[in-house]
């Protein structure tokens, strides 16, 4: 379903992703792990046509991502790490906007949107402006939106960041169900190792732009001799704390502070 | 078509919901109209040129459109920073439709503001020469709105944050406005200034509108139409290229 072949991405002199190769099978639940700034988001952006690889090739559902971005875009859904909703629109309007961009018929989206809003428990807030939503509600809405066009691959870039355990539980149950029932391939990143343990069939760990380990969670744990995946992760990627370069989240916070005085 | 429509509709909804910015955007043209209009009209009359409000009103309408259109285009920078543009860019929609949707949205908002300011100029004593020419004035109004919404969007495609915004105001919008014949006649100017006004597309928009509203013009109304359309197409070409290169 996903094939990454010797892909490198540079920003000026900085190599964010350094010659990685990776394959994800159809219907697989794949976790892409790494410390902050390791290259996870850059990789997802290349997979989703937002960034072009400096070198190498990517295939998604058989489409060459670089040469045929339009066909690629139909195949996947994505929940971004940073919010990407329009705050001035209502929950329903955000969904409707998405549906029309993906060319769903009116009949189809008027049927699907209420179901998805029900699923993420936002039915009673469907006509509220997104700017009044809490962080968790926004995440849930983004997840519902990412599923609206029934993608073959769903990318989730730290989807549970800032969510309480109840919501996290809810979302992963749904994602796993989606994978089992509809066969949607799941490609996700997270910093919560218990989430990986719970749903990932295979993982890859990236650090400093290079893939340093790949395999089933159990294999990775055993190969490092650690007791659990968290310890295995730390033994592979070291103890020091990373700074994320050019953190978009921080930028937004800065802007917010300026605006709000 | 549907995607262009939904992009357009989204911008219009945002505009209607933000009433404060709607009213705020009228402050500047009203100030210019009353301060310049009434302040300079005795001198203008003494110079034997007639009624200054009659001359100024089309310029102030065009100014409103210029500012609103470019600001709405530049809005794209916020969408880049706040992430919404990613949602649009990963969708199976051509970048060109996104550019057109965004431009039409900004142009519509600017045209609405232009019409509101036109109504305000009536309260300041402006009287169109002929009602039959109003549709033509409206056509110029729309073309000016489209051109500068496209320009704003194209500029925004190149910028990553709002740091560049003062540059846009001081080196794009203000020169376009002051060097366009909006507030003074562009005949008998020093050669250098005359040259600048003649390469400024806004001069043609204002001249066309002044022709339709006040019955006075420097360029042929057809030349003005041609320049507005031609420059808009050229900007769309550049914009399409810029959009195809945007990475988020």
Characterise the protein shown here.
The complex is a heterodimer of chains A (261) and B (248). Chain A has helices spanning 40-47, 69-75, 91-101, 106-119, 135-147, 165-182, 193-199, 217-224, 229-237, 248-260, and strands spanning 2-11, 14-24, 29-33, 55-60, 63-64, 76-79, 153-157, 185-189, 202-207, 210-215. With 261 residues, chain A is of the alpha/beta class. Chain A has one domain (2-260): P-loop containing nucleotide triphosphate hydrolases (Rossmann fold), CATH 3.40.50. Chain A has a 6-stranded mixed sheet, sandwiched between helices. Chain A has a 4-stranded antiparallel sheet with strand order 2-1-4-5, with helices on one face. In chain A, helix 4 packs antiparallel against helix 5 (135-147). Chain A is globular and about 50 Å long. The termini of chain A are far apart. In chain B, 79% of the residues lie in helices and 0% in strands. Chain B is built from 11 helices and no strands. In chain B, helix 2 runs antiparallel to helix 3 and helix 7 (134-158) runs parallel beside helix 11 (221-245). The longest helix of chain B is centred in the middle third of the chain and has 29 residues, at 95-123. The chains are: A alpha/beta (261), B mainly alpha (248). The A-B interface holds A 45, 48-52, 70-71, 73-74, 76, 78, 80, 82-89, 93, 96-98, 100-103, 145, 248, 251-252, 255 and B 2-3, 5-6, 10, 13-14, 17-18, 81-84, 86-94, 161-162, 247-248.
Inertia-based shape of chain A: globular
Number of helices of chain A: 10
Order of helices and strands of chain B: HHHHHHHHHHH
Largest interface: A-B, 34 and 26 residues
What features would you highlight for this structure?
heterodimer, A: 261 residues, alpha/beta, Rossmann fold, six-stranded mixed sheet, four-stranded antiparallel sheet, 10 helices, 10 strands, 41% helix, 23% strand, globular, B: 248 residues, mainly alpha, 11 helices, 0% strand
């Amino acid at each position: 379903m996903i094939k990454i072949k010797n892909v490198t991405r540079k920003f000026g002199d900085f190599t964010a992703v350094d010659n990685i190769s990776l394959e994800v099978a159809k219907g697989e639940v794949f976790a892409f792990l790494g410390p902050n700034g390791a290259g996870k988001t850059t990789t997802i952006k290349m997979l989703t046509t937002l960034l072009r690889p400096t070198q190498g090739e990517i295939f998604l559902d058989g489409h060459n991502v670089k040469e045929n971005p339009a066909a690629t875009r139909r195949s996947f859904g994505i929940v971004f790490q940073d919010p990407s909703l329009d705050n001035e629109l209502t929950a329903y309007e955000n969904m409707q906007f998405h549906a029309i961009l993906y060319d769903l018929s009116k009949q189809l989206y008027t049927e699907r949107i209420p179901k998805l809003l029900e699923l993420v428990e936002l039915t009673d807030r469907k006509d509220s402006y997104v700017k009044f939503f809490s962080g968790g509600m926004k995440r849930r809405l983004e997840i519902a939106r990412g599923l609206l066009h029934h993608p073959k691959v769903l990318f989730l870039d730290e989807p549970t960041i800032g969510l309480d355990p109840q919501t996290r539980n809810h979302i992963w149950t749904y994602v796993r169900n989606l994978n089992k029932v509809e066969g949607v391939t799941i490609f996700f990143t997270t910093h919560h190792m218990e989430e990986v343990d719970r749903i990932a069939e295979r993982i890859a760990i990236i650090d400093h732009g290079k893939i340093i380990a790949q395999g089933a969670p159990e294999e990775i744990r055993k190969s490092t001799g650690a007791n659990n995946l968290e310890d295995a992760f730390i033994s592979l990627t070291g103890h020091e704390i990373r700074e994320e370069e050019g953190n978009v989240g921080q930028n937004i916070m800065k802007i917010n502070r300026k605006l709000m005085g | 078509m549907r995607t262009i429509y939904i992009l357009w509709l989204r911008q219009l909804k945002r505009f209607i919901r933000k009433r404060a910015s709607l009213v705020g955007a009228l402050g500047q043209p009203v100030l210019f109209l009353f301060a310049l209009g009434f302040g300079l009209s005795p001198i203008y009359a003494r110079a034997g040129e007639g009624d200054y409000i009659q001359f100024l009103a089309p310029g102030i309408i065009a100014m409103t459109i210029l500012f609103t259109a470019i600001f709405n285009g530049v809005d794209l920078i916020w969408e880049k920073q706040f992430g919404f543009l990613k949602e649009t860019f990963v969708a199976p929609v051509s970048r060109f439709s996104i550019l057109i949707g965004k431009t039409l949205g900004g142009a519509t908002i600017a045209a609405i503001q232009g019409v509101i300011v036109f109504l305000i100029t009536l309260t300041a004593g402006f009287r169109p020469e002929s009602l039959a020419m109003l549709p033509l004035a409206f056509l110029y109004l729309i073309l000016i709105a489209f051109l500068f919404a496209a320009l704003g969007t194209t500029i925004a495609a190149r910028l990553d944050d709002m740091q560049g915004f003062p540059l846009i105001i001081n080196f794009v919008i203000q020169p376009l406005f002051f060097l366009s014949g909006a507030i003074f006649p562009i005949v008998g100017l020093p050669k250098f200034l005359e040259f600048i006004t003649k390469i400024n597309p806004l001069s043609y928009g204002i001249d066309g509108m002044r022709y339709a509203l006040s019955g006075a013009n420097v360029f042929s109304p057809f030349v003005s139409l041609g320049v507005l359309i031609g420059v808009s197409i050229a900007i769309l070409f550049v914009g399409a290229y810029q959009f195809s290169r945007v990475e988020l």
